[in-house]
Amino acid sequence: MVSRALFLSVWLALCSVAGGASINGGAFAAAADDSAGTQALGQAAGFSHPEVAPGTCSTCHDGMTATGMSANHPATTASCDTCHSTASWIEQPLNNAPVWRAVRYGAEHSTQASGREAGVLIQSAGETWRQIRNGPITLYGGLVLILVPIAIGLFYQWKGPLQLHGQPTGRLVQRFSYWERLIHWSVAITFVVLAVTGILLLFGRSLLIPLIGHAAFAWFAQVAKNLHNLVGPLFIVSVACMFVMFVRDNVWHGIDWQWLKKAPQVLSGKAHVPSGKYNAAEKGWFWGGVAFLGLVVGISGLILDFPNFDQTRATMQIANIVHGVGALIFIAASLGHIYMGTIGTEGAYQAMRTGYVDETWAKEHHEIWFDEVKS
Amino acid sequence: MARMKFLCDAERCIECNACVTACKNEHEVPWGINRRRVVTINDGQVGAEKSMSVACMHCSDAPCMAVCPVDCFYKTEDGVVLHDKDLCIGCGYCFYACPFGAPQFPASNASTPDGRATDWFGARGKMDKCTFCAGGPEENGSEAEFSKYGRNRLSEGKLPLCAEMCSTKALLGGDGDILADIYRERVTVRGKGSEVWGWGTAYGKPEQQSDAGSAGKQTERSS
Asked: Looking at residue B75, what DSSP letter applies?
């Protein structure tokens, strides 16, 4: 920590030298010019400011040619250089307001306290994080988690499961190897654990505390937090293995476009478009779900799970938002996959459970793959 | 009841860190935990240097309280924001939300009150923060309360030690109305600096504050 304090003081000294040169005497320069100076008055590269006549800043800084007054700037008709210089707020004896305004931008100042961001007096972004998490993420996330199962339930009531047209032959063909099933169920089980514990941590306060009380819920939440943090990395490893193992069969082919065009008929069993080992919807789930959303929640999750690398609050606030949005979409989409893989399609669950499907099933669902296997 | 607030006067703070030391000593705060810290702006620039002692401000609309997944925060009738370490799961959300950097977590090289190490896997221990010297949910002045939250001075009729022993009386802690009176008098005498640092963020916009200086008793909403 001594070295850090030393570094800070050296850095501040350098800043004050640089700041002092560019403004008159540089009273409020130093750390403040990082925030107030550049944020309030982004500098035009290569433009020579010393030649500008006093009171004429707004001829360029009108919000069109160059950055003008921000939306939350206090209403004023005074010239810009009453309060600002090119590098900083102008020195105003007896007026501390500019200093405290600069502090609000979250600049790091000098302190003897150890710890990350100890020199930051106010970090306002947490308020935004709170509004987003307690607002849209909880509201829309909750709505999605209620509406998607309802939609799936209605679809099931309306259409029922996809059934085989022909009679099962009784001859079985292997669809998934032992390793493929092992990887699939590793991903599936870790995913469900993460989804349940994550939902508990986001919605438990409003849903479960009124039912079971603070003490009991805190126990569940403690278990949920630790499970979530420990299982998270296992999920990432499983997803990585799954990607490597499944990617070859998920490469997009021309036939998949045709499947996609006729998707409604195919899904209700009225039309047949032959597909390879995986059809277009399965490939969509692989690329959009496993690969893309897996990467999104994986990276944002690691940032939150391992706060050991001095990442700032701002980084973790953003990671938390990304993680929440990504995970909620992932969960909603997974409900579709789970439906199709269990009650939605006759024989699909047996395929991933035992590894084998009936030849009729293979021919009706994945004809190209079946032909390849047979040839 | 009085609405308890902190006020730090940047014109008086000399960065002696006595408030920090007093806090650590009074509450036997573990290593690595800073319930209070002093931050210096424009360090070393004559005339421009300002220091500020900052801890939990016990906000009116406390962000920590709003985001806690286990709802472990509560507000006393004095407006002091406290939390229950038995409920806290150490998720760190209060630390994301707090503008003042008040929530602290015993992590690497630290341990929970019962001695278990918490530094494995980067896991956070139970959150610790300034209690306005008002302890926690345990019985006032009990062993259990002291080991988790430190001394409960408020229950003994005393104000926070950091402010009580501030040598320049830069840091004030107590009834917000009285603090505002003291500060207004100072501002009148020295003729400058009417802004009270952090009050807008902690206690709302000036017109919503428990009316800086008015003698009328105004009860603070507790939610």
From this structure: E
Contact A32 B42 (CB under 8 A): yes
Q: Are A154 and A289 part of one and the same domain?
A: yes
CB nearest to A126's CB, from B38, B87, B96: B96
> Are A299 and A156 in the same domain?
yes
* Contacts for A264 with CB less than 8 Å, ≥ 6 apart: none
Q: Which residues contact A326 (CB under 8 A, 6 or more apart)?
A: A293, A296, A297, A300
Which residues in chain B have their CB less than 8 angstroms from residue A217's CB? 70
Q: Sketch out chain B's domains with CATH numbers.
A: 4-207 (3.30.70.20)
- Could you tell me which chain A residue has the CA closest to the CA of B73? A214
Shared domain for A150 and A274, answered yes or no, is yes
Are A225 and B99 a contacting pair at CB < 8 A?
no
| Nearest of A92, A120, A97, A112 to residue A34 by alpha carbon | A120
Q: How many domains does one find in chain A?
A: 2
Q: What pTM does this model have? A: 0.79
Q: Are residues A149 and A275 in the same domain?
A: yes
The residue whose two tokens read 């990432």 is A236
A226 touches chain B (CB under 8 A): yes
CA–CA dist B55, B22 (Å, integer): 13
- Which residue of A lies nearest to B24 if distances are taken between CA atoms? A113
- Write the residue in B48, B72, B100 that is nearest to A122 by C-beta: B100
Same domain, A306 and A359: yes
CATH of the domain at A272: 1.20.950.20
- Closest approach of chain B CAs to the CA of A26, in angstroms? 9
Q: Looking at the structure, tell me whether residues A34 and A155 fall in a common domain.
A: no
Contact between B172 and B9 (Cβ < 8 Å): yes
Nearest CA-CA distance, residue B39 and chain A, Å: 5
Q: Are residues A132 and A13 in the same domain?
A: no
B109 burial (CB, 10 Å; 0-12 / 13-18 / 19+) is exposed
SS3 label, residue A356 = strand
B119 phi/psi in degrees, rounded to 5: -90, 0
ipTM of predicted assembly, 2 dp: 0.84
- Asked whether residue A272 falls in the same domain as residue A155, the answer is yes
Cross-chain CB nearest to A111 (options B38, B88, B197)? B38
Taking Cα atoms as reference points, which of B30, B54, B26, B25 lies closest to residue B107?
B30
Question: CA B222: distance to chain centroid?
Answer: 17
| DSSP state letter for B205 | S
pLDDT (tens digit, 0 to 9) for every residue of chain A, 375 residues total? Answer: 444 444 444 444 444 433 333 333 333 333 333 333 333 344 445 677 777 777 888 888 887 887 777 766 666 777 777 767 665 555 555 566 667 777 777 788 899 988 888 899 999 899 999 999 999 999 999 999 999 999 999 999 998 888 888 899 989 999 999 999 999 999 999 999 999 999 999 999 999 999 999 999 999 999 999 999 999 999 999 999 999 999 999 999 988 898 888 888 877 777 788 888 999 999 999 999 999 999 999 999 999 998 877 789 999 999 999 999 999 999 999 999 999 999 998 889 999 999 999 999 999 899 999 998 888
Range of the domain at A17: 2-103
